[in-house]
Amino acid sequence: GAVVSQHPSRVICKSGTSVKIECRSLDFQATTMFWYRQFPKKSLMLMATSNEGSKATYEQGVEKDKFLINHASLTLSTLTVTSAHPEDSSFYICSAGTGGDEKLFFGSGTQLSVL
Amino acid sequence: AQSVSQHNHHVILSEAASLELGCNYSYGGTVNLFWYVQYPGQHLQLLLKYFSGDPLVKGIKGFEAEFIKSKFSFNLRKPSVQWSDTAEYFCAVNAGLSGGYNKLIFGAGTRLAVHP
Questions:
Q1: Segment A58-110, tens digit of pLDDT
Q2: pLDDT of residue B32
Q3: How many other C-beta atoms are found inside a 10 Å radius of the C-beta of residue A56?
Q4: Which residue of B has its CA nearest to A40?
Q5: CA B106, CA A39: separation in Å to the nearest integer?
Q6: Dihedral sign, Cα of residue A99, residue B104, residue B11, residue A6
Q7: Which residue out of A39, A43, A47, A103 would a mutagenesis test of the B interface target, given it has the greatest number of B Cβ atoms within 10 Å?
Q8: Residue B108 near chain A (CB below 8 Å)
Q9: Is B88 in a helix, a strand, or coil?
């Protein structure tokens, strides 16, 4: 089946630094990618919808200047957490689909810890 | 705004027991509903989905779910669980205007532990 690769799986960084997370669709072209955030024992919260070649659409309450999303190609979307702070520590998951009724495939997630 | 509520955060069962995980959503319009499963150390995977038609939906691995519109519910069931069903289960509803798999809103998840 289709595979979405997310990298890195785990990252620890110092407060104030930026971290980039990559999401790749390995065997299909993803016109749309979604970025989620999951707090411990909480649900996945949709952060933004990323469409290839256009600006991402952010959900209410998500700071677009802090969580930069780039979807430069049909197989790659990146999420950059800028000037990370301890409260940004979380599990981030991407998903990719071809739109419509096609399946949505999930990456394995990235555990971000900001010290 | 749409929301999804899963009633049980943690369920413990013995093998061969029957399973029912509750899911309720809040949205008055047409919805697409999903159950996803995440086995330990693995990606989220689609178990089953409801778009339209027969409200009793059958998914993989013997799971089924019933859409009851009047109750805004989409409960997941399995008649006899196995140890390999140990996983976290997420109910989701679409929030996108285009429907389908876009902009899924997830419940908090239910962690199922099945003991041999």
A1: 999 999 999 999 988 889 999 999 999 999 999 999 998 766 556 778 898 99
A2: 87
A3: 21
A4: B108
A5: 13
A6: positive
A7: A43
A8: yes
A9: strand
Q: Tell me the chain A residues in contact with residue B95 when contact means C-beta distances shorter than 8 Å.
A: 46
Taking CA–CA distances from A102, the nearest residue in chain B reads B101
Structure tokens at B91: 């109910």
Which residue from A34, A42, A105 is facing B108, i.e. has the nearest CB? Answer: A42
Tell me what the pLDDT averaged over chain A comes to: 89
Question: A2-49, pLDDT tens digit by residue?
Answer: 689 999 999 999 999 999 999 999 988 888 899 999 887 777 888 998
User: Could you report the per-residue pLDDT of B96-115, keeping only the tens digit for each?
Assistant: 555 556 678 899 999 999 99
C-alpha span between A51 and A7 (Å, rounded): 19
Classified as helix, coil or strand, A88 is helix
Instruction: Determine the residue among B39, B44, B45, B98 to mutate to test chain A binding: the one whose Cβ has the most chain A Cβ atoms within 10 Å.
Output: B44
User: Quick check: B100 and A106 CB within 8 A?
Assistant: no
Quick one: which of B2, B96, B90, B106 has its CA closest to B45?
Answer: B90
Distance from CA of B42 to the nearest CA of A (A): 7
- Cβ contact A108:A9 at 8 Å: yes
Chain-chain contact of B43 with A99 (C-beta, under 8 angstroms): no
